[in-house]
Amino acid sequence: MADSSWKKEFTKNMVHFDSIFNQWSLKTVRATALVGAIEQQAKQAKGDGAELEKRLETEWSVLAGENKKFVYGEISLITLAYCLHTYCSASNMKNFYDLGSGNGRAVIAAAMQNLNFEKLVGVELLTGMHVMAEKALTQYNHEVRPVLGEDGDDLRRRSEVSFVNGDFTDFDKSCDWSDGDVILCVSTCFPVELLAQIETIASRVLKPGSIVITITKELKGDNFELLEKFKRMQGWGPSWMFVYRMKYNLPLKEEAAKEEEEEEGPKQSGFSCPFM
After folding, report:
1. CA 64/CA 31 separation, integer angstroms
2. Which residues lie across from 98 on neighbouring strands?
3. Closest by Cα among 159, 30, 153 to 103
């Protein structure tokens, strides 16, 4: 268990955090996410313009229901802080990624923890939410970062915090998170296919020892060691949280198996040809 002393500073820093994010009501943030979902639906729509126009005239709630992976929900920050201080406080835990970062709450909250993060990145597909995150980051840099810690050398004052507007499953066009030491996925509304993509990518690019945190939905691969599973109240209701550690990286495992096979030489079948 992590030393609970972090809770005192967490409570103190929430005043600064609220000064950034209380500028938007939850209703405004959800509406922004919904507009983004509609925009994504328009980009992906097939058929003529009349059909798309007809769809856009229907209730927004219906459109949101068809795009559950874009539904906005707020993670409990005290629960996130618990996970980070309990499992991500080692000196080699330097890079934090939030896949589907919304308006940046979790990234900014992680940046405010007195840990060893040198780089924190949020990746968000919806442009409106990304714009909010960028605005929050500007305010964080100008008003909050300078007062964190007790001296000017505090790592939180010089860590690299950024947001990317793009698809986190597309490394070429969006964001390469293969150097991640901590990966957060608020995956409650992620379709099964999307979570499977994340699991496949993580299995091939993350180094052993990396931490992956998901909400509501579990990872299935044998290379993910479940460290803790617990239920906590989130912004949308009680949900299970899962904390995993990467046991091994699939390409490295495959390479090691290949090297072992080469050292042992070709396997003998046990059959002796009488003509040899």
Report:
1. 10
2. 122, 184
3. 30
Q: Cα angle at 150 between 144 and 156, to 5 degrees?
A: 50
Alpha carbons within 13 A on the beta-carbon side of 215 = 26
Radius of gyration of the chain (CA): 22
Do the Cβ atoms of 186 and 110 come closer than 8 Å? Answer: no
Q: Is 202 exposed, middle or buried (0-12, 13-18, 19+ CB in 10 A)?
A: buried
Half-sphere exposure of residue 49: CA atoms within 13 angstroms, side-chain side: 0
pLDDT, one tens digit per residue, over 157-177 is 889 999 999 999 998 777 899
Question: What's phi and psi for 108, nearest 5 deg?
Answer: -65, -40
Instruction: Please name which of 90, 108, 107 lies closest in space to residue 98, comparing C-alpha atoms.
Output: 107
SS3 content of the chain, % helix, strand, coil (to 5): 45, 15, 40
pTM: 0.80
Q: Which amino acid belongs to residue 131?
A: V
Is residue 210 within 8 Å of residue 198, measured between CB atoms?
no
- Residue the block writes with tokens 């899962």: 242
- Supply 72's token pair: 């906005």
Task: Give the position of tokens 């059959």.
Answer: 271
User: Which two structure tokens, joined as six digits, stand for 81?
Assistant: 């802080």
Tokens 């080699």 identify what position?
92
Residue 185: which residues within 8 A CB-CB, separation 6 or more?
Answer: 99, 100, 195, 198, 212, 213, 214, 215
Helix, strand or coil, per DSSP, at residue 242: strand
Q: What is the pLDDT of residues 215-264, one digit of tens each?
A: 999 999 999 999 999 998 887 788 999 999 999 887 766 666 666 666 66
Query: 137 with 143: CB under 8 angstroms?
Result: no
